[in-house]
Amino acid sequence: MKLKTSLLAFAACGLGTAAIAQNANHFFAERHSMVRGPYVEFAKRVAEETNGDVNFTVFAGGSLLPPAASLQGVRDGVAQVTYHAGTYTPSELPVANLIGNFAFYNTDPMVMAFASTEFGLTNEAALAEWKENGVVFGGGYSTSQYYMMCNTPVASYEDIQGKRLRMAGGAWSRFAEHVGAVPVSIPSSEMYTGLDTGSLDCAVAAADALDSFSLSDVVTHMNRLAVGNYYAGFEWGYNPAFWQGLSEASRNVLFDQMAYYLAQHRVEFDKDVEKAVSAAKEGGMEVFEPDQALTAALAEFVTADEAVLIENAKSRGIENPEALLADYKRIVDRWAALLADVDHGDTDALAALAKAEIYDKLDGANYGMN
Predict the structure, then answer these.
(1) Which of 168, 194, 276, 346 is deepest in the core (most CB within 10 A)?
(2) What is the DSSP letter of 39?
(3) From the CA atom positions of the chain, what is the Rg in Å?
(4) How far apart are CA 256 and CA 250, in angstroms?
(5) Burial bucket for residue 68 (CB in 10 Å: 0-12, 13-18, 19+)
(6) What whole-number distance in Å separates Cα of residue 162 and Cα of residue 150?
(7) Strand-pair partners of 336
């Protein structure tokens, strides 16, 4: 009923900001760190700071839009802001997926969250891609590091041979093949069933899934090989008509709040991982450090896969992927330096850095306005 009401409200409205149903969409559950801060708390703070001019109704858990429909949904105005995972729309977002598949270059999630945000807000090819898809990019994100969470011991390179690993597609699937495993591309919502029924040996995802997806019930072993982290797409993508109907003051409020929650969600995500892993260990889960052969295989893959990324990007119509990756490397390296001496648990310090180095450099009068 809530979904029907919201859709009817949108259909009946004009373009005036006050008339548009201000829906915020995320397909993770409300208790997830990428929702409870960057959407639930964010919506409250935005409403307060804009004196109610921007008043989002948050729909979590896919209750408004399913994962694969979030990009089209924000373009069409079903949602005014949404999270979107780029893996669901590789044809529509080749630039975002090229960058997202470069997740092995630096596996520090804080660096990659800030770098992907700066890239998405400033790179000309990325900006053109957002515009073509009917979205105003607001900011990025990053999961915590991906680990192998398994229902069987996977401690070494030998152990991983032939194992069925749930992967996020793209580079992750190629890595599985590189080390002799079998990649299985399924949504995160199906990891539990796969491990429980034995159709999967391991789920490769951020370890907060031990709690947020209840994987601790079916996982007996975890390998701490850092298999990248995921950040393709965006944490906040806005409907253009909605964005352009806002006052400059309201857009600046959104910039400030996105700077804060870009940092906040990363701090909270890592806290959730620590809690989930600690609880799972207390419940009997065994944790392995990767052996030298597995670590070496990952390093070999990272070097070799850049050429594959470039070739795949060209096949999807990107004319100069080498230049895009060079720009992204520059931004990643810049953020690695900027964050080197900042406490990764200090939300206020991290948010201040995001504000000063990213959002304060945007022009609230012009960004996303054409």
Answers:
(1) 168
(2) I
(3) 20
(4) 10
(5) middle
(6) 13
(7) none
Strand order in the sheet with 81-85: 57-59, 23-25, 81-85, 233-238, 136-139
Cα 56 to Cα 21: distance, rounded to the nearest angstrom:
8
Which positions ≥6 away from 10 have C-beta within 8 Å?
20, 21, 23, 77, 78
- Calculate ∠ Cα 86-316-26, nearest 5°: 10
CA 100/CA 112 separation, integer angstroms? 9
Which distant-in-sequence residues (6+ apart) come within 8 Å of 235 by Cβ? 34, 38, 83, 138, 139, 140, 141, 258, 261, 262, 265
- Smallest CA-to-CA distance from 54 within 83, 17, 88 is with 17
Predicted confidence (pLDDT) per residue in 248-305, tens digit: 999 999 999 999 999 999 999 999 999 999 999 999 999 999 999 999 999 999 999 9
- pLDDT tens by residue, 325-370: 999 999 999 999 999 999 999 999 999 999 999 999 999 999 999 8
Domains of the chain: residue spans and CATH: 2-142+230-273+316-361 (3.40.190.170), 146-229+276-306 (3.40.190.170)
- Positive or negative torsion for Cα 336, 347, 355, 59: positive
What gap in Å lies between CA 262 and CA 109, rounded to an integer?
A: 11
Looking at residue 322, its amino acid is E
State the angle between helix axes of 124-132 and 109-122 in degrees (0 to 180), rounded to the nearest 10.
70
Whole-angstrom Cα distance, residue 26 to residue 82?
A: 6
Token representation of residue 120: 């998405």
Which tokens sit at 283? 């419940």
CA angle 264–93–301, rounded 5-degree value = 80
Report yes or no on whether pTM surpasses 0.85: yes
pLDDT tens for 234-249 read 999 999 999 999 999 9
What is the C-alpha to C-alpha distance for residues 98 and 74, in angstroms, rounded to an integer? Answer: 22
Phi, psi (deg, nearest 5) at residue 149: -110, 120
Element holding 238 (H helix, E strand): strand 233-238
